[in-house]
Amino acid sequence: MPGGKLTNAIDGIPAGPQALDVLRAGLNFLLVTLLFLCPGTDEHGLKIQTTAAAAGTLPQHFCDRVSVEFQELFTQSGVSYTDFIRTTEPRHRRAVEHFWATLQDRGWLYLANYEGWYCTAEECFLAASQVTERPDSQGCRHMVSLESGHQVHWTKEENYMFRLSEFQEPLLRWLQESRLTITPEPFYQLVVQWLKQDLPDLSVSRDRNRLQWGIPVPGDSIQTIYVWVDALVNYLTVVGYPDDHRNWWPAACHIVGKDILKFHAIYWPALLIAAGLDPPEQIFVHSHWTVQGQKMSKSLGNVIDPKACFQRYTVDGFRYFLLKQGVPEHDCDYYDEKVIKLLNSELAGVLGGLLNRCTAPSLNPSGTYPPFSEACFPRDAGTQNVSGLRKASAEDYRLVSSVKELPLQVSRYFERFQIYKALESIVDCARQTNGFIQRHKPWKLSREDPAQRQWQDTILHIALECLRVYGLLLQPVIPATADKLLSRLGVGPAERSLKNLTFLSRYHDEECPFEGRKLGPDTGLLFPRLEKPKARSHGGP
Ligand SMILES: *[C@@H]1O[C@H](CO)[C@@H](O)[C@H](O)[C@H]1NC(C)=O
Ligand SMILES: *[C@@H]1O[C@H](CO)[C@@H](O)[C@H](O)[C@H]1NC(C)=O
């Protein structure tokens, strides 16, 4: 199942505390083919230069510290990756210099006097229509960016310009080839709209006097390469550009936040085409987390620290919450009660409850994977009930067919990065399985009566098979919990691959390797219920 590639792609971790969000590229994953996952930190630019100066430290030291924080966060959250790219690495500088020289050789760059409103926070020039005058808290009037509200300054300097205006048509053609180039769909539409508006040339360097923290323009050391041109090339650096990137490029999927869509969906593909390379195959865009309806910000003091959440909800619990509630199309709202409610209901309740029922010593005294009986649950729902042993109802057949279809459905959702839908279909099946048990009340059947015992065993066999499939499918999302579940079912490490998703083979007249096998040891609740948070003081009345 190609969905396996997502084993490590957890995204949507809220921007971390303090300085973490300064390095905006922390969540820009690069997913090249099925096997290459690369997050990284984008470390150059005026914003870093200013922030480091304000902290009384050198930009390099500042970046070293923050980049490590990101890497630690990945390790802590159980996200592994193929490579981690820092834009201050020598291999990256080489790639950027080569990329720049290629653009220059092909005639896409020229020097020009440039003036306009510059927004340091966004690291870009803004058009007159993108700025407005607004008073600050002291009543002083400033020009600010309409989109971000950050202050802008009138800036005049000689810069290298990239002939972006010539790429309107090529970019529209690229997007028309496939609607799946930019997903989800609303973001595709947004980019098409942008492209139908004016597309001026792009300033791609800064005066060295103003910006020292960056890669100098090759052959012109009084200019520094624009941080976005520098940063975007990271996707090529990690696949070996300029020497052997052709093994990977352009089989790439960029996973980006909606705030940096323009850079990835307009500037980057144009730069690539200009340099004689193919644009990325896919750009997957995600929205942001708000906190109780507000934007997360340091000044509001409402930033959610993922490390604290791992402590409070466990790593698996928090991963599950983010991936189940994180819908890429629109912003999602975070609050503690919501996490607790979701985890208690789905992990502790639906999944943990189901496991408890199927392994309870009162129902399963031998602690084994009990045998399945074809007489109780014949394959053909239409055959006559000759034996009188037949128990399965139409709803039961529907359950079996839902769970059989589940892996394919989940893999389709995973391929489209719709993890929340994949999880919803797993939970939905688990709810149906609980309903199946509830319907047949196996605890009311007597083990003394052979026919009843046969049916009781069959009910448990089916429920355990369902749980095994859910456990296998949940491994990428909640690895520790899935491991606990599968271990409890006695499923060995070599039986947990996507090839082992065959469901209820006895029903299909095949051997079931688990039938009659001893269950694994009882290691406690699958996911302990979380307590409601204690009322926290907010410092106000
Ligand atoms: C099959 O027959 C037995 C005995 O007559 C009956 O108890 C049982 O409900 C029947 N099963 C179904 C699914 O109709
Ligand atoms: C699990 O998959 C492996 C690898 O494909 C296979 O060798 C093994 O027989 C499978 N085991 C079960 C129980 O399905």
Describe what this molecule looks like in 3D.
By secondary structure, this protein is α+β, with helices and mostly antiparallel strands. The protein has 2 domains: 6-286, Rossmann fold (3-Layer(aba) Sandwich); 336-508, Isoleucyl-tRNA Synthetase, Domain 1 (Orthogonal Bundle), CATH 1.10.730.10. It is built from 15 helices and 19 strands. A hairpin with a 2-residue loop joins strand 13 (216-217) and strand 14 (220-225). Helix 1 (46-54) packs across helix 2 (59-76), helix 4 (168-177) runs antiparallel to helix 5 and helix 12 runs parallel beside helix 14 (450-474). The longest helix has 25 residues, at 450-474. The radius of gyration is 28 Å and the shape is elongated. 40% of the residues are buried. The model is unreliable at 1-33 and 537-541 (pLDDT under 50). Bound molecules: 2-acetamido-2-deoxy-beta-D-glucopyranose (2 copies).
Walk me through the topology:
Layout: E1 29-32, E2 36-38, E3 40-41, H1 46-54, H2 59-76, E4 85-86, H3 90-105, E5 109-119, E6 124-126, E7 131-135, E8 141-145, E9 153-162, H4 168-177, E10 182-183, H5 185-196, E11 202-203, E12 205-207, E13 216-217, E14 220-225, H6 227-232, H7 234-237, E15 252-257, H8 261-274, E16 282-286, E17 289-291, E18 294-295, H9 306-313, H10 315-325, E19 332-334, H11 336-359, H12 394-415, H13 419-440, H14 450-474, H15 479-488
Parallel strand pairs: 3-4, 10-16, 15-16, 17-19
Antiparallel strand pairs: 1-2, 1-15, 5-6, 5-9, 7-8, 9-11, 12-14, 13-14, 17-18
Helix pairs in contact: 1-2, 4-5, 9-10, 10-11, 11-13, 11-14, 12-13, 12-14, 13-14, 14-15
Bound molecules: 2-acetamido-2-deoxy-beta-D-glucopyranose (2 copies).
